[in-house]
Amino acid sequence: MGNEASPSHPAAPVPLLTVDELRALVPDREVTTVMVAVPDMAGRLKGKRVEASHFLDGLPAGPEMCKYVLATDVDMNALPGYSLAGWHEGFGDLRVIPNVATIRRISYLPGTVLVHGDAVDSGGWPVEVAPREMLRRQLEALTAHGLHAKVGIESEFVLYKGTPTQVRRRGYRDLTPVSPFNLDYALDHPPALSAFFSDLQETLHQAGSPAEAIKTEGSPGQIEVTWPYGDPMRACDTYTVQKHAVRHLAAQHRMTPTFMAAPQTGVGSGMHLHISLWTDNGEPAFGVQRPDELPELLEHSLAGLLSGLPGMALWYAPTLNSYKRYVPRQFAPTAFTWGWDNRTCAIRAVGHAASTHLEVRLPGADANPYLALAATIAAINHGISDQPELPEPCTGDAYETHGLPRVPRNLDEAVFAFLQSKTVTNAFGLPVVDHYTRAAGLEIAALAGQVTDVERERGFDRA
After folding, report:
1. Residue 60: is the preceding peptide bond cis (ω within 30°)?
2. What are the residue boundaries of the structural domains of the chain, listed by start?
3. Which fold has domain 19-128?
4. Rounded to the nearest 5 degrees, what angle is found at the Cα of 108, between the Cα atoms of 245 and 113?
5. How many whole angstroms separate alpha carbon 375 and alpha carbon 310?
6. What is the pLDDT of residues 173-185, one digit of tens each?
7. Which residues contact 218 (CB under 8 A, 6 or more apart)?
8. pLDDT at residue number 9
9. Contacts of 328 (CB under 8 A, 6+ apart)
């Protein structure tokens, strides 16, 4: 439930591969394949497996991909309504430029490395709706204030027994978590779960993204992975590597993970963002000596988050299922509140002196980390620039708070708030707003009119 690392003393990351180091590994076929990946709107890695020597010969350019990788639904359907790609323009290509500072080994795929890339159009300009580019622009706006961020991410997911094929064949029903009850903070895990943890820990280490901690959480089968504080873009890249690794390793262990925000009634999985700001000369901007005397930048950042994030739920709660996580007393916020070391709040202030940081508890496990963090940084930029008024901290049960904005109850409410938010438009621009409004509309339409199991249970022989 909490990442307690000090942002002032992040652990040194394991170095990733340089281009020269990669070149040295290719002639002896130690590395044969480079996976060039761009995060899609859902935060999944999409791309191509490129023969390693061909990849090196093509640098600095990377492979071309159909533009619809950044303009589709979760099923990768080719759908109308996006200006970036569609039947109206023939579903043309974009190019993914490898970021050669992100080359990492993928130990569970022999001879393979992964590199994150950035999408550019035919003129070489960044694609502004690409999640990595959206985050980059908000971080650049933060530097205009003479600040930079350090970020740590908590990832929660649930593991079930059975291979993905077995789970699909059962229609995702009658699932059995890998642990039968609450094992929060337990150290006596079932042997199969301990073996999975060991493999995941070693895989992340080999990928240059060593976890700070791996633990079981409060629901059966629920896992939490945390990483040390560091560079924001690298934190998000690491999250995508972890999701890729978790799915692959779980299948090897005859398990199936889900990153749904609410995979079962009463179970919620989050993706908490821990963030601190630092000046260009390396001084902590959030350093608190007394809780009743907030540094100016901390006050403005808190106020910006509480003022700006209500309109950005599409980027931290992107699906209909996301909103089933926001349930009182299940450690997900229901109102836009803040408090000191208070896990019932949307924004939890924690730490002291140089270790003071903010935990944003709104994003669900199904959120795209780049978009959730872009929203967070945009809200902080808004707070620094516009200086909205900061509400009083919540000192008790935030679920009993009244008179403050509530977290949207569903995706329709979130779309309405998104379209009404001047903060969103000012920070990201109308093309980005239109693109992600379309994505939310497709998500709503996909489930509209669908008859659910619960409806049948309540009405089949009672209506």
Report:
1. yes
2. 19-128
3. Ubiquitin-like (UB roll) (3.10.20)
4. 90
5. 10
6. 889 999 888 888 8
7. 1, 182, 184, 331
8. 52
9. 334, 399
